[in-house]
Every structure is written in structure tokens, then in C-alpha cells.
Amino acid sequence: MSTVLVIAVAVLVFLVIFQIAKASEYVAILKGEDRSRKENNKINGFFMITFLIAGLIGVYYCNELLVDKTLFAQPSASVQGERVDDMMKLTLVITGIVFVLTQIALFVFAYKYQENDNRKVFFFPHNNTMEIIWTVIPAIALTVLVVIGLRNWFFFTSDAPKESAVVEVTGKQFGWIFRYAGEDGVFGKKYYRMIDPANNSLGLNWRDSADINIKDDPAAHDDIVQDQTMYVVKEKPVKLIINSRDVIHDVGLSAFRLKMDAVPGTPTTLWFTPKYTTKEMREITGNPNYQYEISCDQMCGNGHYSMKGIIEVVTQAEYDEWQAKQKPAYYAAFPDKDPSNQQQAVPVAVDSAKKVTALSSAKSISTASN
Amino acid sequence: MSNEAILHSSVVAHDHHDSHDDTHHEHHHHETFITKYVFSQDHKMIAKQFLITGMFWAVLGGFMSVLFRLQLGYPDSTFPWLEDIIGKWGKGGHISAEAYYALVTTHGTVLVFFVLTAGLSGTFANLLIPLQVGARDMASPFMNMLSYWFFFLAGLVMLSSIFVETGPFSGGWTAYPPLSALGSASPGSKTGMDLWIIAMALFVVSSLLGGLNYIATILNMRTKGMSMTRLPLTIWALFFTAVLGVLSFPVLLSGFILLIFDRNFGTSFYLSDIFVSSVGALPNEGGSAILFQHLFWFLGHPEVYIILLPAMGMVSEILSTNARKPIFGYMAMVGSMFAIAILAFLVWAHHMFVTGLNPFLGSIFVLLTLLIAVPSAIKVFNWITTLWRGNIRFTPAMLFAIGFVSLFISGGLTGIWLGNSAIDIHLHDTYFVIAHFHIVMGVASMFGMFAGIYHWFPKMYGRYLNNNLGYIHFWLTMIGAYLIFWPMHYQGFAGMPRRYYDFSVWESFKQFADLNRFISTVATIVFFVQIMFLFNFFYSIFKGRKVTSTNPWSSNTLEWTTPINPGHGNWVGEIPEVHRWAYDYGKDGKDFIPQTTPVGDDESVH
Ligand code: HEM
Ligand SMILES: [Cu+2]
Ligand SMILES: [Cu+2]
């Protein structure tokens, strides 16, 4: 019903405007075309200057209203992102100045030089000095931006520091899979034809498969595979090895000011150093539900908008605790190989001893990958 | 006195210009309805065909944006009428995710290619090239006609894709494989994608036929005295546009052909190591998904200039005419367009900074991309200087031309952000990009097109558009465009990704619900304002105020030396000879000196 009403009102407004416009055209003709043109010119000239003033106020007001909802209201969560923020601020200043000056010139000239019978037009077809000046000045400003930009770009894309943690991120329709190298610090081999959605979502080489020339890779037996949430340590660089299982996705890390595509068949990498734990960020933003979200930033199908991952940034101690609880994915697929499932056969005392070793070896991974 | 009579009595009252015999020019051959209006070979009729077909697509593409903005602005409301118009895609009065993506994709494709490439270049290259260089028609009127009909066919195929069972293509206008290659990955990539590719292939054929013709006409068919450096800037712009199209569209076609092979014939150009949940592991190995992006953007980037340059050319012409002052720095304008045309081919990978591109290669593209800002800056400064100390008449065309400059500044400056890879790594594929390209390419070129329509409507139909509706159209659209797209920069600053159907589950992006509602509301109003323009357009074709002088804007260029309603062949007698450039406004105290006026002995030289 309300839609019908809206449409009816729209049509009505439309007809009224049309009739008025038509009528005023008749009036204009009766009045004399020249005179009505001059009147219209005055009105539009006035609108030009009004638009400029209202527009500049609007730009300011829009900023007041919205800037707190953007990432400018919170510090960058990564060391890299701080540089992105700095660059955006510098670029904002430079482009902002140009924006204000050129818009003012445009609309003020339009207003000031509106038609006037007494003005003699200045025949001014070219002026080499002026043209050289406004070629050179932008060129210098842009050079500055390029130099700063490229220094940062080479920093962002440089090799990750040796001590970085490494996490493999794989996108699929529509979710994220994370893999850690496990006890040996080595990612086992995988092959996409080994993928089994039930228990081997990444296709790790867990068995011999002569027909496709695959050998069981022991390094894959201790890899830890997790969906949805990734754990990283505050202030410790982390390198992501990014893959896709099906179409192109993109690991979007807006809080860290970074992103990188996930391309099937061509792994990409990205590294960064988180600065604040999730808990700290909750305090900084004052939002108790704050999460570091991974948003998929490349169109990947109808569920693209729901392809969310979470990054938990934690302290080293919390990380170790979390890691101690993780079991290699191999054991979920082959429960009989899992040492903790062989407990009937072993006495209770030995079992608890096993747990202790499991824990300490978990610790040693984190030091190994340090 | 009836309204009609008032309108047309002005013929008598105000004929301070030479009143020309505007009865229809006689033809040496007989025309039927079919040869005159359908399979016409007259460039002016073909221009009108392109324009009106473009308008059809603009309405459809614009309406699609209203529909998907409804979802973004009012995700919790239901609109029962949606089910009536889009059926199962709008079940329960809600646009489904599938429909959302189909709408966004078709909106993008249609507006970029059908409206702002065919609708803009097709209309004004056809209308203006022969008229402004002084030719009776295009080099090959027949090819020109084919160009339109291939476009028409492309449109039919695209339209038919909306009605197939699995829906139209929904993977974004950039059509990146593997998504676009695998029907199993998305229903839109089934039949809908086949039709999308066929439509685009036909479109490429159309634009090649058109482009070659434009180049041939400009190079070979200029009238006596019309040296290249006397060409109006519109023609220079259309020339560079055609060159860009001819060199880059074939590359796109090659990309599409490989895609067709991957889709239908089991090749692996773009496919490797893929496991799709619904069908399991695919046999393809060794392809590169990124290869397509290189081929796509090798067209895709020049494409944005294919869209922009004609608008720039028309704006230059209209600004100068209505400021009653020569365009400032004619040679610099031509030079900067040349620079833009060259650089347009050397910056494509700035769309691919985050694909895992070699960082060194990326840095080269940063450099070249920011270099392109220099000729763009020159153009802006020259336009502004053209206004300085002029004597400006605010015709609706002039308003849109000024609006174009304002939008081009606003959108061009954000290009400096995105061209710097170290910023793009954060803002890529967010609403910042949506804001950037809509302002600089979408709306700005639309403004160029409106300016052109208002300015040359008298030449096309021998009547005027209603001025007052033109003023309303301009101011509401100008305000609306900024209200819609300016705040989107802030959504981008929050990292809000584009191509998202729903933001409500995202802690990082859901704070913009109010803003989204505001944007959607304004977008709907702006859409209706465009409908008002169309009403004005079609009404004025039949009922508009009649043009009574051959040169209503007191302009210098050749099209205003033809009769008010020129027939096929344009000039009744000899084609006039040209003696000067097109921008002698305000010279030696004379308001304007047409190109056909010989240079006087005592005339000053510049
Ligand atoms: C009423 C005016 C318009 C509005 C409100 C509008 C709105 C939008 C929005 C919100 C999106 C992003 C949707 C999403 O990512 O989920 C979009 C996409 C797009 N629009 Fe527009 N638009 C308008 C006019 C235009 C024009 C004139 C062009 C011509 C160049 C254009 C070209 C595009 C393109 C190429 C895309 C990208 C499509 C894709 O992601 O595949 N739009 N539009
Ligand atoms: Cu996605
Ligand atoms: Cu580009």
C-alpha cells in the first residue's frame, strides 16, 4: 500500500514540476528570450556559489559525522598498517589542498564571470609559463608520493623475518581453513586431488596413491588444521601462505590495513606484525564484541558476503596454552593412529606421562618456529 | 493563443539570426521507413539509434541499482512488489543473494559497455565526426550500420540472459575465472555466462566496426582547410577513443575466447588445482587464473578512458563555446589526451596489486599510474582557466560541463590514493573504490553525455529541450551524485568490502546501516530525476520549442553551418571550407568567428 502511495506522490510531484517548467518556458518566450536567459543566468550563477559553500560545509559535516565509524578512529592493529595510515594522511593533505583550491576556483570563476553585457572577454588561448608551472608542480608532488609509497610497498612485500610464525590460509566457498606446521615445523605436502571434505579438507598427503603419483608424507602427519579462527601472537611477525581451493578469494585484514588474494594454483604470501591482542583492541575501541575479522574481498560466489574468518591475537603464553590443546588433523582422519586412542593397551600411569610429553613437545614447536 | 502557437510565434518575434531555409533537404534517392529509421546508413540516424538504445540500457541498469540498493539500505524490510517483478529472485519481498549479485553484475556490465561506451561514443562519434570534420557521412556508412546492429544484437543476447532458468551471470562485471568458468561454482556461471560472453563478443565486433570507421573518417575525410590542428577537441577526443578501442578490445576478445575454451572444451588456460565442493576435484592443472586478469585489464583500463575521453572532448567544446572564450591551451589539451592514450596501455596492472603480482613489477605500475595524473591535472587547470575572465552563459549543457569538471577533480584525486600500491593494499575492493570510479568514470561521463545531449539536441531534432527541466535535472543530479558517492569514501575507510549482499553479521562494517539507508533513498530519488530527463527528451522531440536559427549557441564549429534539419549528406551545396581553428571566441572584440570565416588582413595572430 505504502509503495503505491509513494509512487502516486512521485508521479504527482513529477507532473507538477513538468507543468511548471513548461509554463515558465512560455513565460520566458513572452518575456523575450534574451531577458529570460539573463535571468536564468543570474539564478544559476548564484546556485554555483551556493553549491560551493554548501558543498564545502557538507564535506566538513560529513567528516564529523562519519570519521568515528572508520578505522581512522582506532590505531592500526599492525606495524605495517601504521605506515598505511601515515601515507593516507599525507595523501589526504595533498589531495585535500588541491581539491579545495580547484573546486573553489571552478565555482568562483563560474559565479564571477557569469554573463554580463559590459564585460569584454579576455582572449587568452595559451600561456606557456603557466602551463609549465602546472605540469611541474603536480609532477613534483606525485614524485614525493611515489617515493614514500614505494618504500612502504617494498617493506610490505619484503621477505618475512626469519623468526616469523607461519600460517597457511586456504579460502574455499565460503570459509577459511588454517594450517599450522605442527611439531616438526614443516608443512607436509598436499595435493588437491587428495581433498576429502569429510576429513582431509586440504588434501594432505596422508597415504600412498600410486595412480596419481602421491607418496605418504610423514611431515603432513603432525600438521594442525582448523576452520574459521586463526591464532597469532602479539608482536611476533606472522607470515601467511595464502591458497585457494576453488575460485579466487581475498584475505582482507582491514584492522591490519592489508589484504592479499587467494588464487587457486598460485600461492601468495603476506606478512605482518600484530600490535594489539584482541582483548586490548576491545578496550581501545570500547566495543566488548570487537573481533579481528577476515573479510573475503574478492567476489567468489553467492556466499561471498558471508565468508568471514576470525583472527585471535593473543599473548605468547595464551598461544602456548591454546596450542597444547590442538591435535594434528591426521589423527581425526585416522583415529587408530592417535596415541591417545591406544590408552586401553597402556597402563594409566604411562598415559599421563604421554600427555606431559605431548605438552612439552607442543612447546618446542613454538620455540622451533620462533 | 494556444501553447503551441506561443512556442512557435517566437519564430517571428526573435529572428536576429539569419533565418535559414529549413525545409527538408532533397535526397537523390528515395527512402522508405525501413531505410530511413531502421537500417539507416545516415550517421545522424545511427547516432540517434545508439542514443536511444543507450537510454534503454541506462534505465534498466539504473533501475537495477535501485533494486540492489534497496537490499543494502533496507535489509530488514520486505517489498512484496519485488516478487511481482522479479519472481523467485524476490521471494517474500526480499532480493535473494543470487539476485543481488546478478543485478550488480548486469548493472556494471551494462552501464560500462552499453551505456557509456556504445551509448556515449556511438552517439557522439556518429553525430559529430562527419558534421565537425566536414564530411557527408562516415567513411563506410554500411559498416557503421553494422556496428549499430551488432550492438543491438549484443543487447538482445544480454537481455535474454536475464530470463534463463539459472539466472544471468553474477560474478561481477570483471568476470574473473575460475568463478566465471565454472558453472558448478555459481549458478550464474552456467547458461547466463554463456550468453554474457556471446553478448560481449558481439559488442566487441560492434565497437571495432565503429572504431575503424571513426578513425578512417577523421584521418581521410576532413574538408578542405581542416588540418588536424584545426579539429575541434571533440574530434581529437573521439579519435583517441577509437584508437584505444581498436587496440584493446581484441585483447579482451582473446581473453574471452580462452574462457570459452575453458568453459566448454576442457582446456586449462585459467584453471588449476581446483576442488569444487559440489563436484569434487577438477582435472585441470597448470593454468593461471591471473592470466585472465591481465587480458581483461589490458582492455579494462583503456576502457575507462574510452568512457572518459569523449566526455572530456565534449566538455572542452561546450565550456569554450559558453564561456565565449577560446579553450585554454589547445595544444596542451591534445598533448595531454595523447599522453593519456599512451599511458592508458601501460597501467593495467594497478588493478592487480594484491593478486600476488611481482612487487617490482607492481612498483613500475605505481610509477606509470601516478604519471597519468599529470596530463589529467593539466586538463583540469586548462578547463578552469578557460572560465577565467570569460562571459559565461549557463545553458543546461554548460552546467553539466562544469559539473563534469567538479566530479572529475573529486574522483581523479582519489585515484592518486589507489594508484599508490601501498595504499591500495588496504583500500582495494572496498567502497572507496566504488566511490572513486563512480565519481570519476560513472557519474562524470554521464555528465559529459548529458552536456552533449543538451548541447546537440537542437542539431539532432531541430528543437530545444525544456531549459527549466534541464536546470532542475542538473542541480538535483549534481547534489544527488555527491550525496550518494561522497560518504562511500568513509565506508571504504572502514574497510567495507564491495559486492557484499549483507553487512549485518560483520562487527567491522555494520555501523553504516543508517548511512546505507540514506544513500539508497537518495539514489532512488536521483533515478526518478533521470526519468524526468527522459520525459523531457521524448516530449521535446515532438513538442519542444523549435530551433529558429542554424547556429543557436553562436558556435564556431561546422555542424552549425548545416541546415536546421540536415538531410543525408549534411550540407545542401558544397561542403564549406575551413580557414581557422574552432576557438576564436572573443577575438579582436568579436563574439565569435566561425571556422568558415577567412582570416582577415588586420586580424591579430596568437
Ligand atoms: C544511480 C546511480 C548509481 C548508483 C546508486 C550505483 C550504485 C552502485 C553500487 C552501490 C555498486 C556496488 C554494489 C556492490 O559492490 O555490492 C555499484 C557497482 C557498479 N557500478 Fe554503479 N551505481 C550507479 C551508476 C553507475 C554508473 C553511471 C556506472 C557507469 C560506469 C556504474 C558502474 C558500476 C560498476 C562497473 C560497478 C561494479 C559492478 C561489479 O562489482 O561487478 N554505476 N553501483
Ligand atoms: Cu569472496
Ligand atoms: Cu585502471
From TrEMBL, chain A:
EC number assigned by the record: 7.1.1.9
tRNA processing among keywords: no
Co-factor(s): Cu cation
Topology in the lipid bilayer: Multi-pass membrane protein
Location (main, coarse): membrane
Task of the protein: Subunits I and II form the functional core of the enzyme complex. Electrons originating in cytochrome c are transferred via heme a and Cu(A) to the binuclear center formed by heme a3 and Cu(B).
Protein's recorded name: Cytochrome c oxidase subunit 2
Source species of the chain: Limnovirga soli
Taxonomic lineage of the native organism: Bacteria, Pseudomonadati, Bacteroidota, Chitinophagia, Chitinophagales
Automatic annotation (TrEMBL), chain B:
Positions of transmembrane segments: 50-72, 110-133, 145-164, 195-221, 233-261, 295-315, 327-348, 360-385, 397-419, 431-457, 469-488, 518-539
Entries under PROSITE patterns matching the protein: COX1 (PS50855), COX1_CUB (PS00077)
Membrane topology qualifier: Multi-pass membrane protein
All copies of domain Cytochrome oxidase subunit I profile, residue ranges: 33-579
InterPro entries xref list: Cyt_c_oxase-like_su1_dom, Cyt_c_oxase-like_su1_sf, Cyt_C_Oxase_1, Cyt_c_Oxase_su1_BS
Keywords of the record: Electron transport, Heme, Iron, Membrane, Metal-binding, Respiratory chain, Transmembrane, Transmembrane helix, Transport
One GO-annotated biological process of the protein: aerobic respiration
Principal localisation: membrane
Record GO cellular component, one term: membrane
Keyword set includes Isomerase: no
Localization per Swiss-Prot or TrEMBL: Membrane
Sample GO molecular function, one term: cytochrome-c oxidase activity
Similarity field: Belongs to the heme-copper respiratory oxidase family.
PANTHER family associated with the record: CYTOCHROME C OXIDASE SUBUNIT 1
Protein name: Cytochrome c oxidase subunit I
Lineage: Bacteria, Pseudomonadati, Bacteroidota, Chitinophagia, Chitinophagales
